[in-house]
Amino acid sequence: MTGTGGQFRSDFRSGARLVSEAKPRAERHGDTIVITGKVEHVWSDPYDFIVKTPEGEKPSGGAGSESAVTAERTGYAERYNRGSGWTQTVRITIPIVDGRLGTPRAEWEDTDEVVDWKTWKPTKPLD
User: Fold this and answer.
1) pLDDT (tens digit, 0 to 9) for every residue of the chain, 127 residues total?
2) What count of Cα atoms within 13 Å lies in the side-chain half-sphere of residue 122?
3) How far apart are CA 105 and CA 97, in angstroms?
4) Are the beta carbons of 93 and 101 closer than 8 angstroms?
5) What is d(CA 58, CA 51) in angstroms, rounded to the nearest whole number?
6) Taking the complete model, does pTM exceed 0.85, yes or no?
7) Can you tell me whether residue 121 is helix, strand or coil?
8) What 3-state class would DSSP assign to 67?
9) Which of 37, 58, 62, 126 is the most exposed place for a label (fewest CB within 10 A)?
10) Are 64 and 49 in contact (CB under 8 A)?
11) Which residues pair with 44 in a beta bridge?
């Protein structure tokens, strides 16, 4: 998993990718720091039966078995992409005790907002 600022990305060996991007706001209220915001999650999984490795291309196993590759080559299967996008809100409170940050507490909540995973773009480029 990698992360820069409010972005986190996990790349899976299968080619799937999960990207989460936070849009936080931090405020101080007395002896408490409150961070709130929305987090967009986008998962995509290209299904192409082949895994590219430094040693070359090979069937990915499971769906990428030799029979799946043969089915694709003979027209009985084809590549496709699948994915999903969703949004959560987060509220993190961090107490300040004797001038030091205390233990953070996070509250997550799912929303009904759907993210279009096919058209979603991060606010800054991913590495």
Assistant:
1) 334 457 777 777 666 788 999 888 999 999 999 999 999 999 888 766 555 556 655 555 544 456 666 767 777 667 777 889 999 999 999 999 999 999 999 999 999 998 888 888 877 766 5
2) 19
3) 14
4) no
5) 6
6) no
7) coil
8) helix
9) 62
10) yes
11) 17, 83
